[in-house]
């Protein structure tokens, strides 16, 4: 099996030749297209991981300003002919050309609520979400329409799928009724882009914000269209095994993104990977982390050790 075949087998909940793995971290937002390409390929090549996830490390080009509730009706996002989109599609094409067809490439996307939060501030977004939800919905729909077109452009440029960071389901932020009205429809609008296209895939990352202790209602996302689902086990106290019982897709994750994969030593990284696979098994899982690796001193040799531990795992062996 090549890397693409291996990950596809996992997404189909079939046994692969060995367990694949993938990890990622953020880059500086001012990197050039060539620098972005090289940084992603360096991570991929030096760690031997099985997938390439292209990071989204700049703010979406949201247009408009918010001074009153009516302003939400007039916000938007620049189109697929924008400089920002041209940069990202150039990164996708460059990585595809150099990495070849034997690995799946996923483009990271944040939802329209995150785009609005980044552009106008979370306090502003939450204030109007409570006080003027209809106006906020109109603005979020404008952003979702734009991001739907961005998702199409990413896939057209050569991405095999979307790595979608689904946020705003944290405990204490919205009631489920509010979330179902304000957030869910627009997440689904973007996720359906890859879902409806042949040989395209969604990785669903369920993410919480630090203001809410990263705790989120994982169960609210059970029926989101996804081929792999990922969430923070450590922050939610929600195991991979529990997720397997409720999600209709394969699972990505297992490692603490701020733990051994960041600090080492290598022996503990191997033990952590082995413990995950001893508990979960080897079918329908790709080893990864709770979220992006976060912290100072990220080491590619530590990531490579985790990938190697997944690739060489045999039940009952240490």
From TrEMBL:
Biological process according to GO: porphyrin-containing compound biosynthetic process
Species assigned in the record: Blautia pseudococcoides
Domain Uroporphyrinogen decarboxylase (URO-D), chain residue ranges per copy: 77-313
InterPro entries registered for this protein in UniProt: Methanogen_methyltrans, UROD/MetE-like_sf, Uroporphyrinogen_deCOase
Pfam families: URO-D
Name this protein carries in UniProt: Uroporphyrinogen decarboxylase (URO-D) domain-containing protein
GO molecular function annotation: uroporphyrinogen decarboxylase activity
